Amino acid sequence: MEESTFKYKNIEITWLKHAGFRIKDSVVIYIDPYGVTKELEKADIILVTHDHFDHMDMKSIRNLSKSDTVIVHPKGCIIEGYQTCDVMEEDKVTVKGVEIQTVPAYNVDKPFHKAGCVGYIINIDGVKIYHAGDTDRIPEMKNIEVDIALLPIGGTYTMDVKEAIEAAKDIKAKYYIPMHYGAIPNTEADPNEFKAGVENAVILKPLL
Questions:
Q1: Structure pTM?
Q2: From the UniProt record, which GO molecular function terms apply (predicted)?
């Protein structure tokens, strides 16, 4: 039976739904939390990839924040009333002992995501996790070497399953987790098709 959490070394990676994840070790990190209505563990850090409603969900951010939560987001996202750290493509910052690197995320032949959106590579206790954000398969992926890659497969706004399979071949990772499918219209996809084409793919079920 599929679980919501994948454990790697000391790290727990939980798929909330859509592009939302919780990464937990000595700190609690959320990436693009969306539709969080139930009580979950509060965040030390929240990462936002871009300002679309399904990625910068302010209600979810409020529900997960505490007094010292730091929100990392691209320049151009307007998030007020919180401790924030704004970033651009190819930035490197350290927040609460966690090394965070931004990488490009964009559409090649779609109008939805242009320059300014980002993906993240998080280095937490020596484990590197790549959250691709909303992106197509892009040339920059060939430079990425991580332990775990979180890749969108839903198509329409991002790469589809077939593209994601090819992207997984570009990215050097030990494990690949599909995301960004099934939660909003026009993102239906079969994760088992992704798993059939990608060695060491891990399918999670949404927690929410």
A1: 0.96
A2: hydrolase activity
